[in-house]
Amino acid sequence: MFKIIVCIKQVPMVSELPWDSKTGTLKRELAQGMMDPASRRALEAALRIKEDRAGEDQETHITVISMGPEMAREILYEAKALGADNGVLLSDRKMAGADTFLTSFILAEYIKKESPDFDLLLCGSQTSDSETAQVGPQLAGELLIPAMGYVQSIELDDGMVRVQRHVDDFMELLEMDLPGLLTIDQGAYSPRYVALEGIERAFHTDDIRTVNAGDLGLDRDFNALKDSPTRIIDVYSPATRKENQVLKGAVKKVVGQLFDEYGKIISGAMGKDLKTHDHEGAK
Amino acid sequence: MTGTKDIWVLGDYRNYFHSRVTLQILARAAGLSAKTGGRVCALVFGDHVDEYVNEYIAHGAETVYVIDDPALKDYSVENYSFLMTRLVKEFKPETLLVGATRFGQEIAPRVAKYLKTGLTADCIDLDIDAKGRLVQIAPSFGGNLIAKIITPEKRPQMATIRPGTFQELKHDNDAEGEVIRLPLPSDLPAKKIRCIRSEYKPSRNRKLEEADIVIIGGRGMGSKRKFKKLFELAELVNGEVGATRPVVYADWISHDALVGQAGKHVKPRVLFSFGVSGAIQHTAAVTDADFIVAINKNPNATMMKMADVAIMADANQVCSGIIRAVKEKIRD
């Protein structure tokens, strides 16, 4: 039996999120959750390994773990509907506000306690909401296992994986002893999706276990926000750069205005002359 | 731990010719150390690395710690993270900075974990507060906001720095620095990762980074089919097409076209931005454009605010309008 653990995260659909223009903050309470797109690719990699091995009559077991609020249960059901065997939600008020150091610590505590015999750990390369790319490598550091990031293809061999990746302009072929951790590149393992009925079926038939700080044996006064080594002291919206011209109205009109006023800049960058509205060539 | 006031910078030299991030961080470290005291130091691990040692001194490093050994020939997260951790514990710098290359993004979290200290990812600025602490300024919350982060107690304070954030100092051949050569520790652990092949292979699509006209489409283009119009426009204006992350994830275009933190940085003379809202991971990669035309129905989109010309309309329709206008205006 080959045991894979996939760490996934629920993220807000931030680009859909309304702004509070007065405070400059996102109305996060209105956020719809979705499975982080990078996590989805990590799950896809696990599912393909499972399928390939099934073709050779070899068993694979996929456990999917997420840390987050109760709402994050949704993506665990979705992962099960996609083919994961087991889903676990690490959820506790005391875990809220964890930075990457403590997030990786909590995930590692669960893995050490409940699934220490895993072969392969998979994560997305970076989540779409914070993009730190830190939790994967830190989780490997916490578990003292080797790790490679931004992996594009995985081939299992006896007690090791052979992977290919393209990092910092180097195409690399590497092998890594197992157990180990891989993060999956954002351009690899195009994910499959599951029909809503599948998720609903999972919702009705499957059980997602919830694990809290006490279950993990964390200290009574554990508090992720307080215990994180980093602290956010200020948050603000990025300054916008310049005074600009706003064009509005009918498409034909605004496009006309654009070329009338800025045609020279555009044609200069194109390296071609454009006729101006009065039929004189732009210089 | 009580330590020095020194600021350390990891010498990430493998990308030397296209990412000068180590030199950029050294320049900023010099500015920070002027406020805090302490030396600016570089760390160099590898085999026959004297040219980098000299280069870092010429670019502002006062001290360079070097471990030069044939065993360090491969650029290795395992080896380098072990050595960095060892040296930090021995010499106790106040701050440890690493370029946010992919190598840097793999090694820094690992070292921070071994040292049980905090780490801020992908900083776009660094400062020193009234108490002499490093203020790590980085995108947050999906890139819509910027956060100032400190590491109140743990040391060293660690951050990775986005390439291109700081301006390197001029190369100074006369600069003098101290070089501290250290032996390879005898207890370097056996590697669990082995490199079978590593080939220098620059990304195929450099055109996007070098184009004078870049056309970026966001989800506001509407659909994969409509997105294809951007290629028609690109063809007409000798431009290249780039995209935002949601578009790449939706498979409207290949990942190679991603413009942003995890993708390419562009610096065209004219940037057309169609239906892009403007998360900072994206906008930071387009700020070097000379002239920006943004098209979006939402006038409050960040991209609209940073444009020179903001067209408040449907991105897809304006794209068609511009295609028609250019066709009419091109002289044969």
Walkthrough of the structure:
The complex is a heterodimer of chains A (283) and B (332). With 283 residues, chain A is α/β, with parallel strands linked by helices. Chain A is 31% helix and 28% strand. Chain A contains seven helices and 15 strands. By secondary structure, chain B is α/β, with parallel strands linked by helices. Chain B folds into two domains: 7-181, Rossmann fold (3-Layer(aba) Sandwich), CATH 3.40.50; 207-329, Rossmann fold (3-Layer(aba) Sandwich). Chain B is 30% helix and 26% strand. The N and C termini of chain B lie far apart (72 Å). The chains are: A alpha/beta (283), B alpha/beta (332). Chains A and B meet through strand 4, helix 3, helix 4, strand 9 and strand 10 of A and helix 3, helix 4, strand 5, strand 7 and strand 8 of B. Strand 14 of chain A pairs antiparallel with strand 8 (145-150) of chain B, so a sheet runs across the interface.
List strands and helices in order, with pairings.
The complex is a heterodimer of chains A (283) and B (332).
Chain A: E1 2-8, E2 10-12, E3 19-20, E4 25-26, E5 33-35, H1 37-55, E6 60-67, H2 73-82, E7 86-90, H3 100-114, E8 120-124, H4 135-143, E9 147-157, E10 160-167, E11 170-177, E12 180-184, H5 196-205, E13 209-211, H6 224-227, E14 231-236, E15 245-248, H7 251-270
Parallel strand pairs in A: 1-6, 1-8, 6-7, 7-13, 8-12, 9-12
Antiparallel strand pairs in A: 2-5, 3-4, 9-10, 10-11
Chain B: E1 7-10, H1 21-36, E2 40-46, H2 50-58, E3 63-68, H3 77-91, E4 95-99, H4 102-115, E5 119-123, E6 125-128, E7 134-140, E8 145-150, E9 157-161, E10 178-181, E11 193-200, H5 207-210, E12 213-217, H6 224-227, H7 229-237, E13 240-243, H8 245-249, E14 270-274, H9 280-283, E15 291-296, H10 302-305, E16 309-312, H11 315-329
Parallel strand pairs in B: 1-2, 1-4, 2-3, 3-10, 4-9, 5-9, 12-13, 12-14, 14-15, 15-16
Antiparallel strand pairs in B: 6-7, 7-8
Helix pairs in contact in B: 3-4, 7-11
